[in-house]
Amino acid sequence: MLFNSFEFALFLPFSFLLYWFVFQKHLKAQNFFLLAISYLFYGWWDWRFLSLIAFSSLVDFIAGQQIEKANTKARKKLFLWISICTNLGFLGFFKYFNFFAESFADMMNMIGMQANPWSLNVILPVGISFYTFQTMSYTIDLYRGQMKAEKDPIAFFAYVSFFPQLVAGPIERAVNLLPQFKIKREFSYEQGADGMRLILWGLFKKVVIADNCALFVNEIFANYQTASGLELILGAVFFAFQIYGDFSGYSDIAIGTAKLFGFNLMTNFSTPYFSRDMAEFWRRWHISLSTWFRDYVYIPLGGSRVGKGRAVFNTFVIFVVSGFWHGANWTFIVWGALNAVYFLPLLLMGKNRKNTDTVAENRILPNLRELWQMGTTFALTCLAWVFFRSESVGDAWKYLAGIFSSNYSLNMEMRPPVFVFLCLGIFALVEWWVRNTDFATHLKTMPYKGLRYPLYFAIIIMIGLFGAFNESEFIYFQF
Question: pLDDT tens string for the chain (479 positions)?
Fold first, then answer.
């Protein structure tokens, strides 16, 4: 079920009313209702994959019980690895089996040995990369002694399948989200209003920004061989806005929807395109995934508190693994490695923690230095996005080569409508305006309350006039 679909427009208010007016008095009934509607939401795509998420939840629930009961470290580690291998086994089979089979066949053919790739017609379950990481955080944190095992299977299953963030995040930690299923939830008008503001802004990002940019991006990337350098530059820039509007829009709707049901999810994006270097960008982009890899992979490897050589190795591991998490294609691996190359100079010079504040804090406009830093960081990010968007590494290199061609004309058929540039300008201004906090919080604290409702109506009108209501899937559903 898509957030931008007619079905969800019916599903959300119906679920909201039943949740607060029928099941409010009984916590277990509320949790069971959340579990039921979450399975309905997930099963809307393909009901067969409900057994997969249910089995994964059951394995981790039992593993968690056994980890807590175990009286030896070896036994704790045994059940931890049962959990990890089960989750990564499902993820590896459904997402990466064909990639490894085809890559092995290609390698054999390169050394002169004939090999035919053996592939399976496997459908990738929506959201499997997200909920496997979410549930693994539970058993890992249990093993580390950072939380107690959950005794209530309904609460645990509801935590794993919580529908707002089930298929595209944020990837919540068990220590943050699971306790919220254990406390009585009372409806808060303020929290609900914040949720509606975030849903509205997220919907604007998706159907106005992302989906309109996608029309131009798809055309350019499909015909990059004949496109001019200027058109290729616009294609890369528009894709940067598309993927940000698409993914952060989903996160805003997910966080806002969770608020309507009395839950608080972590912030997943924090105006990343206003970053002054690549280290700051990765602290602001897909925060839930970046911090997951930091805490469960990077730091256990030694992080940056090791020798320079090992720190470089750890950095490449974390970025390449992050790229591979996104998809079974060499383009994602190269994208991750390229971001590691961007990051390394900052790490080696000890400047990777330099920009931890907000750009132009307490100022309306950035200075020239900040403007240059943001511009170069955005340009590097757009170049990397070309690999992310391309079908193959070869296509990406040819696309980048075309950018530096001598032809910078703009075909009238390739020119985006004026309203797209207008919406992008408004979007960038609002993002700059709220860069110190999130959209909902900023609106609550703005000094001129009379501007709130005109802004709401303006966003609604733009969604109605310029929204691309083709119910297109969110980009990160494929990951």
Answer: 788 888 888 999 999 999 999 888 889 999 999 999 999 999 888 788 899 999 999 999 999 999 999 989 999 999 999 999 999 998 888 777 766 666 655 565 666 656 555 555 667 778 888 889 999 999 999 999 999 999 999 999 999 999 999 888 799 999 999 999 999 998 999 899 999 999 999 999 999 999 999 989 999 999 999 888 999 999 999 999 999 999 999 999 999 999 999 999 999 999 999 999 999 999 999 999 999 999 999 999 888 788 888 989 999 999 999 998 888 789 999 999 999 999 999 998 889 889 888 898 888 899 999 999 999 999 999 999 999 999 999 999 999 999 987 777 777 666 778 888 899 998 998 889 888 777 666 666 665 666 777 888 888 998 988 887 776 667 766 66
Annotated domain spans of the chain: 18-186, 191-276+359-478
- The predicted model scores a pTM of 0.91
Residues known to be catalytic: 326
Contacts of 250 (CB under 8 A, 6+ apart): 3, 168, 169, 202, 206, 474, 476
Cα–Cα nearest to 38, from 183, 160, 198, 202: 160
H runs (alpha helix) in 70-185: 73-91, 97-110, 128-143, 153-161, 174-177
